[in-house]
Write a structure and sequence with these properties.
With 299 residues, the protein is an alpha/beta fold. The chain has two domains: 244 residues, Rossmann fold, CATH 3.40.50.150; 32 residues, no CATH class. It has a nine-stranded mixed β-sheet. Strands 1-2 form a two-stranded antiparallel ribbon. α6 links the parallel β13 and β14. The longest helix has 13 residues.
Amino acid sequence: MLKTGVSMQQMPLTYMQETSAKVEVSPTEDRTGQDDKRRIGRLIVGNCVDIMRSWPDGMVKLTVTSPPYDNLRNYNGYSFPFEDIANELYRITDAGGVVVWVVGDRINGGRSLTSFRQALYFQEIGFSVHDVMIYQKKNTPFTRSNAYTNAYEMMFVLSKGKPATFNALKEPTRRHGMEMLTHNKLPDGINKKKLGELKKEKTRTNIWSYAVGLGGTTKDRIAFQHPAVFPENLAEDHIESWSNPGDLVLDPMCGSGTTGKMALSNDRKFIGIDISAEYIEIARERLTSCGLLVDVEHA
């Protein structure tokens, strides 16, 4: 299903209708004639700013992406127009929609604080910084001679108004049942207790830990042909938290296709954009090898 040499202006009318209608994708028929309920993802080669500018307002429910930052990786030499990307993301995000922006900072020579500058810009253009979460890397190999090992990146959860969807992820509590619980502690510092119930599960904290590297980030070896891959479980956890089946998920800098793999695997629609045809091909091979259906367009 690889389509080459097609501009956004030349795309079939059905594609633009699907985009305008929040990318409604019909089931396809497999070779046996049985209905195939898997959703078809779209990978687009091109400049994400130009592509997003051709889309209607409010068409995306959730964006999960990890942009390049501080020139720490060479992404085939391409530049990163952050403010233009941020402005278009705000426009195309639906009311109540969410952008998850996974980003770190250069640490050599002192922290750059690029991540916080970007979060403040998102806030200035209208996003609410709904949460500042931490992506902790369990097994990072990079040690530092004069500081503690850097083992995290920021995950800014940016919402357009109040998030319309929050499917809280749970974890088991260490103990549960009825016991005396602290209640209504006042400024005098005296603990007042009453009988209450500890539930078997509780909502997770906003610090999420994942193993990295082959087997942790992903088992898909082809993904590591891209210079920076984030964990599949990270993408899946955000997709499950901030969207529902049938919603459109976007990654405007999709790289090896991690967000797409987890969106399609969880019955969401997906559009991934990357300016590098090489990276789009990596994503296409990876997703199709996992049995996921994708079309490729060239803007």
